[in-house]
Automatic annotation (TrEMBL):
Swiss-Prot/TrEMBL cofactor(s): Zn(2+)
Known catalytic reactions: D-mannose 6-phosphate = D-fructose 6-phosphate
GO terms of biological process kind: carbohydrate metabolic process; GDP-mannose biosynthetic process
Protein name: mannose-6-phosphate isomerase
Keyword Zinc: yes
GO CC annotation: cytosol
Organism classification: Bacteria, Pseudomonadati, Bacteroidota, Chitinophagia, Chitinophagales
Native organism: Chitinophaga cymbidii
Residues at which Zn(2+) binds: 96, 98, 133, 262
Length: 398
């Protein structure tokens, strides 16, 4: 394998309860699954590493870091710094915040010292890395992203009758005070505050009278999908009203930095993040919620959502989505039949073919079709020749 740097990559399907049943199997050419297929992981994260040539990708990189990653990336990161995924979001994900690098290192060391097993349900830190991430929509996509600007949040607290009592909290204590209040509120009080709202929005949701840009739509869906129903209302419903509801059409992207609270609501996307699985949750989930840790890492500030459209590079054959993250960059390669894309990998690259047929030639020759993934190690010179209209998503390091 020594001189070869271009491989098919076998990723790992993750079966989380919120995923759809058909999108990922159809992409990968697999029969429909009995259980939901939520995410397809392409990477070297220790909990679900991909394989190349029958070898685990993390082991291949660990055996020859400079050859696989390049000197600079090997020195800076010591591992593949990103994790690439395809997501199929059928039901809303939990509201979540990701820690900074420094805080992840501290939290991981603290939980290790406390002897909390890595797979324990009350574990916050699965590794010592930060987790900025970018998603590119593959369908119409809806998400929650950061706190509403002040005037919009004041309007919500003024016009939603159940939230009027919270308006003075926001006036006096700002974003932090408001969020702390609802996250620390005893469950009985959460039920008392939210029940009239639930009784109002659920019938409207079930009758199909609400639009997706209206927080009542997602509150209605959260209640309709919750096995506890009206008995134990989820405090994440407050966040649906306090955060920006963002719509991205196919090809549009959203970047989430450390500390920005967010939740995916519906649709399919290609997601690229730092190589981490650290999540601090804030609701819409039966999983562990550590409110103290969540409040410590959330950025309590107005967020004005910024939709990234991508910029053309490589003579227009590629759309690049720039972010401040040093760990990763995502781009889309769009080729017409007969087009040839030529490149030298200045960093380890991971590709997935979303559509079409092509042939990649470098240190190996790989026919490509929809659903196939490829790993190109540092320094690989290759060409991709399209036989049909072809769309490839590519992860790399900036």
């Amino acid at each position: 394998m020594s001189n070869r740097k271009l491989f098919y990559l076998d990723g790992k399907v993750q079966h989380y309860a919120w995923g759809g049943f058909t999108y990922i199997p159809a992409l990968l050419g697999l029969p429909p699954a009995e259980q939901p297929s939520a995410e397809y992981w392409m990477g070297a994260h220790q909990s679900a590493p991909s394989k190349i040539n029958g070898q685990l990708l993390n082991e291949y990189i660990a055996a020859q870091p400079e050859e696989a990653l390049g000197k600079a990336a090997a020195a800076r990161f010591g591992q593949l710094p990103y994790l690439f995924k395809i997501l199929d979001v059928k039901d809303m994900l939990s509201i979540q915040v990701h820690p900074t690098k420094a805080e992840a290192e501290k939290g991981f060391a603290r939980e290790n010292a406390a002897g909390i097993p890595l797979n324990a349900s009350n574990r916050n830190y699965k590794d010592d890395n930060h987790k900025p991430e970018i998603m590119v929509a593959l369908s119409e996509f809806w998400l929650l992203h950061g706190f509403l600007p002040e005037n919009k949040l004041k309007e919500v607290l003024r016009t939603v009758p159940e939230f009027k009592a919270l308006a003075p909290v926001f006036e006096q204590e700002g974003y932090f005070g408001l969020y702390k209040k609802v996250m620390e509120m005893p469950q009985d009080e959460v039920n008392t505050v939210l029940r009239p709202l639930a009784e109002r929005v659920l019938p409207a949701y079930e009758a199909g009278q609400l639009e997706k840009k209206d927080p009542a739509f997602w509150a209605g869906r959260a209640i309709a999908n919750d096995p506890e129903g009206m008995k134990r209302l989820d405090r994440g419903i407050f966040s649906i009203y306090f955060f920006n509801i963002v719509y991205a059409s196919p090809g549009e992207a959203v970047f989430q930095d450390a500390g920005i609270p967010h939740a995916y609501l519906e649709g399919q996307n290609a997601e690229l993040m730092a190589n981490s699985d650290n999540v601090l949750r804030g609701g819409l989930t039966p999983k562990h919620i550590d409110v103290e840790e969540l409040l410590k890492h959330t950025r309590f500030e107005a967020v004005h959502p910024h939709i990234l459209k991508g910029e053309p590079i490589h003579n227009g054959q590629e759309q690049l989505y720039r972010t401040p993250a040093p760990d990763f960059v995502i781009s889309t390669i769009l080729l017409k039949p007969g087009d040839v894309y030529e490149h030298t990998a200045t960093a380890p690259e991971t590709w997935i073919v979303m559509d079409g047929e092509a042939v990649a030639k470098g240190s190996a020759e790989l026919p490509l079709r929809k659903g196939q993934s490829v790993f190109a190690a540092f320094g690989e010179r290759y060409s991709i020749t399209a036989e049909k209209q072809t769309v490839i998503f590519k992860a790399a390091i900036p």
